[in-house]
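Handout, page 2. Input:
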Amino acid sequence: MEICFKNKRALVTGAGKGIGRGIAVALAKCGASVTALTRSQADLDTLKQEVPGIETICLDVHDWDKTNEVLSPLPPFDLLVNSAGVSSGESCLEVSAEAYDNVMMINHRAILQITKIVAKGMIAKGEGGSIVNLSSIASLQGLTNHAVYASSKGALDSYTKVAALELAKHKIRVNCVNPTVVLTPMARKFWAQGEMRDAMINRIPLGRFLEIEDVVNPVIFLLSDMSAMINGITMPIDGGASAALV
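Output:
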């Protein structure tokens, strides 16, 4: 069955690069009217060239007041993908206030705020909606030297369940996807070789990292009516890594 989002409005954060960009492009191909949000105007310009009909918003979601000012007046959305996120490589003994504040601000607080704004619009429209949050396998398995990042994704998983319970009465579904390493252009350089790469690959029964489309396709499914009774889940996309107690 072909997925069609004709007459649906979608907001995708973190849409300038990588997974978020892939999701924005896929939604447009499925007929949605897509609004792409990121903090880099240059990324939005190239996205606009790739998908001429896409709407773009250049916004740093660190700024709570500006985010309210920009997003609250917009017409209601039917679909939301919270893809914006940042990583941090501190161990438990190296955590800094700056790293904590930055990662939690983007990976958790901004998602709570944007979801609040968009969900209120969905409720006012009265036709329900679907929200997908981009989490990580780091919330489900220990990942060394990612103390703050893993914590932020664990918090996001918990928030997803709370939002799913509270918004269900409005026919709004909220789900989470939890990928392992995704080979974005930046990640390809970092994970190209070395002991860390080998150790990570060895934890994945299917024996490879993810391509961007390996995440995009499940997200599109969760946004669609094909997943109409899926709500409040955290979906590992990890080639079976989370099935093993290792």
